[in-house]
Amino acid sequence: MKARGFIIAGVATLGLLGAVGSTAQPAETRPVRLSVTTNEPVVVELFTAQGCSGCPAANQVVEGLAEEPGVIALTYAVDYWDYLGWPDTFAKPEFAQRQRAYQAAMRLRNVYTPQVVIDGRRQLSGAQGPAIQVAVNEEAARRLFPPQVQFRESGDQVGVGSGRVPAGGADVWAVSYRPGLQTVTVAGGDNRGQAVRHVNVVQSLTRLGPWSGRPILLDLPRAADPDDKVVVMVQSRADRRILSAAAR
């Protein structure tokens, strides 16, 4: 069914290899004050859709978070609302698949937009701006010696250091995204005529391989566009917690 606010759809030492050197009222966008370093960032993933009436306000919240040091903000456009009258110009099926993996891990009844997932550990409606800010600060305080992620200077490989592997194992993911703002004028559906802003729009997801808890060096996929940037995440396979991440 469809609602105005959102829509619902039925401690180890770090050792690197020697070579590695988602009717909503407009949400408040007060700055987030973090005590986290950029080496241990909080990952904020927004699942959104250009045809979702509540999504532009959530996009604005995440746009504000993207300006904060210590936050990696990513926007995933989903395609399951395209039938409402506007095919999302950024959506890919694999982004909805990632959201459904969070749905299963968090035992949610449905996927919905706008949804914000923080460090893979918790989720909130994108309409809850102040609550999202509180959650980001709480996750920033949770840093507990995650495996280090470090890019090679050549830009074609990434190293992941040692650490404790969660039950069920972990994987290393590369998320390619277009940095900064993009604006799309929506010509159909609930947001007809609106210029909808997006920040750090995800272009692709690539599983680089498993992480066993030992240092590993992995090849990065070639960027489809020279302006794209990449985030590398070490993510628990079972409960989807993001153990560590870095962007370049």
List keywords for this structure.
disordered N terminus; 248 residues; 4-stranded mixed β-sheet; alpha+beta; 4-stranded antiparallel β-sheet; 3 helices
Description of the structure:
With 248 residues, the protein is of the alpha+beta class. The chain has 3 helices and 13 strands. It has helices at 55-66, 93-105, 129-140; strands spanning 7-9, 42-48, 71-77, 111-113, 115-118, 122-125, 149-151, 157-160, 170-185, 195-211, 216-219, 229-236, 242-247. A 4-stranded mixed β-sheet has the order 3-2-5-6, sandwiched between helices. A 4-stranded antiparallel β-sheet has the order 10-9-12-13, covered by helices on one side.
What topology, given as strand order, has the largest sheet?
Answer: 3-2-5-6
Distance between the termini: 39 Å
Number of helices: 3
Q: Specify the helix fraction band.
A: 10-25%
Taking the sheet with the most strands, its summary is: 4 strands, mixed
Quick one: how many beta strands?
Answer: 13
Please identify the oligomeric state. single chain
Basic shape? globular
Q: Using only CA atoms, what is the Rg?
A: 18 Å
Low-confidence stretches: 1-8, 10-38
Strand content: 25-35%
Succession of helices and strands: EEHEHEEEHEEEEEEE
- Average per-residue pLDDT, rounded, comes to 86
The assigned structural class equals alpha+beta
Short recap of the structure:
The chain is an alpha+beta fold. It is 15% helix and 35% strand. The strands form 4 sheets. A 4-stranded mixed beta sheet has the order 3-2-5-6, with helices on both faces. A 4-stranded antiparallel beta sheet has the order 10-9-12-13, covered by helices on one side. A 3-stranded antiparallel beta sheet has the order 7-8-11, with no helix packed on it.
